[in-house]
């Protein structure tokens, strides 16, 4: 079978016109009202120039341009920006001459969450051990387990997340844990003897996670060593970490104990400085230090710790807060927002100490680094402006 080349050209033209009409919405045909040109019969000169048969189309497709003359092949497009990776969330809707893409923003890419400062409440709470009121020895107080029923409600009243207990004896701890449920974890709690567990630290497990825990040797009555706890806690909201230490320095109840208190204070000062130097994270101390102005001036004057209830010790001029109590909360690298010595009726029925409560602001884990970077940038800009 032979094909007339002009007829083939006409058919191709009709097909192309149909495509154009479909894409552009043309109302008229490709040739107006005149119709296609008449098909002329093939002449010998055409055949002599070259014949086209069906065999010539076998295996040939529209994409196969090897058989076409070089000038009729589709030119190769240079790779442009459209071929490059675009930021996530963008949409490429076309291309400018030269390969530059036309890009419109797509769905916005959500920013990385930024850790925020968190506020928390910490307490120092001497609950008056059971042995101090056994057998009605102090008439205004109920037994230790009965008084311990007030501990969990008092923590709830103030929203306490971290508390350093003193004198929390085993039968009192059992009552507290039965009422608080799984809300608070304790160290050392039941993991050590009652001798050590009376000074347990408790923390709200929905807000904090313990990542390290240790004990430090502190001289007590007669210089006998008591192991007292320090716990490294990580905040579940912004991943910031803090060290919390809880202490009970000896009173004079069993003879003069000044030398042992002084020794205990020096150990606590060294501990604070060592932890800050090693880890660079906030250090907080709670406790019944059994001293007022003296322990304040020693700790604030020799460490970066500050008292939650104010006072200063700058250049050797010590100005303790007023009133100064024997129960303290100290801390470094936190902002103290409020302080309360709760001496309400419920506390008065529970213990012979006030419940010390402080509200603090804690920066995110990288807050210090971010501040250093900001300060460095400011110094650079100042230098460039000179």
Could you characterize the architecture of this molecule?
The protein is of the alpha+beta class and 386 residues long. The protein has two domains: 1-76, no CATH class; 118-369, Endonuclease/exonuclease/phosphatase (Deoxyribonuclease I, Chain A), CATH 3.60.10.10. Helices cover 29% and strands 26% of the residues. The chain is built from ten helices and 16 strands. The strands form four sheets. The chain has a six-stranded mixed beta sheet with strand order 5-6-4-3-16-15, with no helix packed on it. Strands 7-8-9-10-14-11 form a six-stranded mixed beta sheet. The protein has a two-stranded antiparallel ribbon with strand order 1-2. Strand 8 and strand 9 (241-248) form a beta hairpin. Helix 7 (258-279) runs parallel beside helix 8 (293-302). The longest helix has 22 residues, at 258-279. The radius of gyration is 42 Å and the shape is globular. Mean pLDDT is 81; it is low at 1-36, 39-68 and 368-374. Residues 124-336 form the Endonuclease/exonuclease/phosphatase domain. InterPro entries: Endo/exonu/phosph_ase_sf, Endo/exonuclease/phosphatase. It holds the Pfam family Exo_endo_phos. Residues 68-85, 376-386 have a biased composition (Basic and acidic residues). It comes from uncultured Nocardioidaceae bacterium.
